Structure formats: structure tokens, C-alpha cells
Amino acid sequence: MKRLVLLVLLTTSSIASAQVKNDSTQIRDFYDLALLEGQSYQWLDDLSNDVGPRLSGSKGAENAVNWAKSELEKIGLDKVWLQPVMVPKWERGAAERAYIEGPDGRIEVPVCALGGSVATVQDGLTAEIIEVQGLADLEKLGTDKIKGKIVFYNRPMQANLIQTFSAYGGCVDQRYSGASEAAKYGAAGVIVRSMNLRMDDYPHTGAMSYGDLPNEKRVPAAAISTNGAALLSKMLKQNDKTQFYLKMNCKNYEDVPSFNVIGELTGSERPKDFMVVGGHLDSWDLGDGSHDDGAGVVQSMEVLRLMKAANYTPKHSIRVVLFMNEENGLRGGNEYAAVAKKKGENHVFALESDSGGFTPRGFSFDADPANFAQVESWSSLFKPYLIHYFELGGSGADIGPLKNEAIVLAGLRPDSQRYFDYHHASNDTFDAVNKRELELGAATMTSLMYLFDTYGVIPVNER
User: Fold this and answer.
1) What is the DSSP letter of 366?
2) Could you give the C-alpha distances from 246 to 125, 127, 203, in angstroms and in order?
3) Three-class SS of residue 125?
4) Which of 153, 288, 407, 433 fits a disulfide with 174 by CB distance 3.0 to 4.6 angstroms?
């Protein structure tokens, strides 16, 4: 009896060792293909330099949809289609202009309109500036000290936070809600310090909201570069009556039609269980959106191409979804989830890349303890590639609407120390992305998708 038990244990151990070896070999194949014969960097070149900026509702976004559909069709997927979605349309117009009225004359400073802002009057806005460190300061100052002035939000990203997305989250409320809150106190306009850890002359745009403010009470809102913010703050300390001039020509329009772009490899064993990998196809209009989120788009496309190149046949149906309108509305992610629910589609896993094309460090997961334990059991397979970060805590904005008790959500986590040097700024261009880092990220995503496809998601009733 003891010999039988020992034989069973040895056999089980041998099977497990063989499977680990198979997994390791398959993952190595994905990395070899990505690094030696990868397509992601060329795709990014095409998307960034031929298509260019892709703000929702723009001609660039339309061109991006057509480009993505055409490229996915070339891979030889089982299905490629466009999913209609209505998106907001906002245009920046002519280049913004701003200057500080100093004792020795006008000092020009770099600014850009925040996405969704109203314009200034035709001749521009001139007013005194009042500096604050956040939304809470408005109530302390009150209407008497704010009315008729431009509110200058100057709270920086917290530099001692190693997780730079935490630093971003700690101050982005002043960009998103700063105008709506300042307008309640009679402010004439808003200037926001750019969400950037580096001192430079690039203003960073981004989404803002007026909430339920009526149109006639909305005030113009712009970002100022970190160097410009430092100069303005210094001058205000010398003279709290300093005047600031701002001119913007932006305009909001009615919603317009656009599309998510979707491609699918149909599963051989579980074709009605879907796994998704994706990034957002839209970008802001200042640069060409190479890091945010061109990198995520081409990495997601590369996942399915690598599987085809490796002659890997997935068990589950695997979709690449290139979402439209993450930047200023999340319409694409919401529409994809709504259609999936309406059709009764069973989504079991989703992975998003929307943190730039830098060196991959690992993944964050929105998962239950049982599935996260399974993920941790795969860590040795990623160790040869220096992928060590496996943490609970978030996934991605576009896949978030798919969340339910059954699905596992994940986000690729590249090194983030330089990400906010480029995020939403005019220097987010193709030359800022390293070919090898981009390809490593694509291989890493493919490997995780392969493991979830191979072992599945642990069902709710087995947790």
C-alpha cells in the first residue's frame, strides 16, 4: 500500500514538473518571438507617426479605427469587427497663450487647455491670481477673496511616493474638479499645475468636468507647466496682486459616432467563455499618444499575433479590444461591457495595458484570494524575465465595467518612474518609447494570457 501511495505521489509530481516545463518552454517561445520577430514597435511607429493624435471624435480617431481594423485583419483572426459607440467631441482650436504681468513686463508661460474646457472671451482673460493647494482651500478663502480672480491650483505630485500613480491620484482632483468648484465661488478662471514629477516646460492636459454647472457659469481651465507654476508662485509671493493673461479657443460639440475595434481568436474548448486583452485607441491631441496608450494598443494586438505565430490554439475565446474614449469619457469601456451583458456573454478574465511602454515589472489584479493564489503560483515562470510584481489592487479603467464576482481583472504594471514626464503632454511621442521595453511588455502580457487560458479562472463555487 505504501509503495502504491509513493508511486502515485511520484507520478503526480512528474506530471506537475512536466507541465511546468511545458509552460516555461511556451513562455520562452513567446518572448523569443516578441524580441526577435516582434510587430509591436512597427505598429506603434505607424499608429504614432502615420495616424498621429487620436482625440475622441476627431478625424485622427476615425483614421485610427480604420488602421486598427485593417491591421487586425492581417493577423488572420477568426473575427474582426467594429462596435459602435457615441463619444464626446472637443476641439482645442488655435494654440493657447498666457503670460504673467511682471514688474519688468510680460513673461510668457506654457499653458494648454484642459480637455472639455470652455474658451476664454475672444480677447482673452486678464485677472489677478490667487494660489491654493487644493479644493479644500476654496472654502477657507470664500467668495470675497476668490470672486473675479483666476484660481491657481499648485499642489504638486508627492515626489516621495515610489508608486507614481499614487502620487498622481493624490492631486488629480484639482484638475478634474478644480474649475467646477472654483466657479461656485465666482472665480473667473482656473490654472492647474501640470501632473508631472519633473520640472520642465511641457503643460499636461487631461480630462476635467463642470459637473452639473450650467453653461453660463462655466469658467476656462488650463494647465501650466511645472516650470511655469514655480515661476508664477514665486512672483505671487513677491506681489499678491500679480495679473495673469490667458487666451483659449477651445470648443465643445454634440456627441459623434465612433467605434471600439475588436478581434477574436475563437476558443477550441470553451468558445463561449471570453478572455479580453486591450488598451485604449484614443489619445490626447498634444503629442501622438505613444505611451498613452499607443503602447497598450499595439501590445494587446501583439498578444494575439504572438499566439498565432507560436501556433498556439487557445481553449477560451480570446479577444483584443481597442477601446475608444478612455481619456474623456470611458464610453468605449462602458459600451463594451453593456453589450456583453445584453448578449449574456461570459467574460472570465480581462487584462489591460494603460501605464506606458516602459520595462514591465509585473501585474496588479482585481481578484479573489483563490485566483490570486493561483497567480502567485506562476511567479517562478516569470522570474527569468525579472517580472516580480504581483499585487492585489486595481486593473484598468476600460475593463473595469466588466467587473463581477466571477471575473479576474489585471493590469500590466511597467516601471512608472518616467511615465508622468510624458503623460498627456506634447512630448508623448514615438521617440519616447524604447523598442525592447515595448516588446518585453507584449511578451509578458501574452504569457499571462496563456497561463489563464491554460489553467482557467477558479469558479465562484470552488473558492
Assistant:
1) E
2) 5, 9, 14
3) strand
4) 153
Question: Has 264 been annotated as catalytic?
Answer: no
How far are the Cα atoms of 87, 105, 189, 200, 348 from residue 330, in angstroms, in the given order? 9, 43, 26, 29, 21
- Angle, in degrees to the nearest 10, between helices 295-309 and 435-455: 60
| Phi, psi dihedrals of residue 215, rounded to the nearest 5° | -55, -40
Residues ≥6 apart with Cβ < 8 Å to 42: none
**Active-site residue, from 71, 131, 181, 326:** 326
Query: Which of 323, 361, 335, 367 is closest to 349 using CA atoms?
Result: 367
Classify burial at 26, counting beta carbons within 10 Å of its beta carbon; exposed 0-12, middle 13-18, buried 19 or more: middle
C-alpha cell at 348: 472570465
Name residue, grid cell 483584443. Answer: 320
Helix (H) or strand (E) holding 92: none
Angle, CA 440 vertex, CA 439 and CA 445 arms, to 5°: 100
pLDDT tens digits, 320-351: 999 999 999 999 999 999 999 999 999 999 99
pLDDT single digits (tens) 126-139? 999 999 999 999 99
Tell me the CA distances in angstroms from 316 to 147, 148, 392, one per residue in order.
Answer: 59, 59, 24
Residues sharing a CB contact under 8 Å with residue 125, sequence separation 6 or more, in sequence order: 150, 188, 189, 220, 245, 246, 247
Regarding pTM above 0.85, the answer is: yes
- Cell matching residue 83: 462596435
Which residues are CB-neighbours of 4 under 8 A, at least 6 positions away?
none
